[in-house]
Amino acid sequence: MHLVCPSCIATNRIPDERLGDAPVCGKCGHALMAAQPVAISEQALPKFLSHTELPVLIDFWAGWCGPCRAMAPQFEQAAQMAPDIRFVKVDSDAAPLASQRYGIRSIPTLLLVKGGRELARQSGVIPAAQIVAWARQYL
């Protein structure tokens, strides 16, 4: 299984049976399977999506957006409920090219990606259990 470190963007190869053993990046020591969302930069996003073999759920958000702030704790709770999905946050104000590349028209918007391919998208605030159920239906 290949996982990209959200901190240094190094690609790590982890045996499937060791995914539950709290693997860390061989380059920087950052946790690879933390059960919480991680912020990722616009520059790192393409490599993270194309080289991470697990599904990735992206939350496009902005700090000034009230619904985005309401969604944040739900997204964090969903990350704890689904440790087999990588949860990342992309600040659409800090990453305008990523927002444009993925056609983000409203926020918050969730994008489910696997193998660099978009599987599904959902806009608006939804509860944590519904986020997980929504993602699982496409996996």
Automatic annotation (TrEMBL):
Residues 8-139 form the Thioredoxin domain. The gene is trxC. GO terms for biological process: cell redox homeostasis. Pfam families: Thioredoxin (PF00085), Zn_ribbon_Thio2 (PF21352). This is Thioredoxin. Keywords: Disulfide bond, Electron transport, Metal-binding, Redox-active center, Transport. Belongs to the thioredoxin family. InterPro entries: Thio2_N, Thioredoxin, Thioredoxin-like_sf, Thioredoxin_CS, Thioredoxin_domain. SUPFAM superfamilies: Thioredoxin-like. PROSITE patterns: THIOREDOXIN_1 (PS00194), THIOREDOXIN_2 (PS51352). GO terms for molecular function: metal ion binding; protein-disulfide reductase activity. It comes from Undibacterium baiyunense.
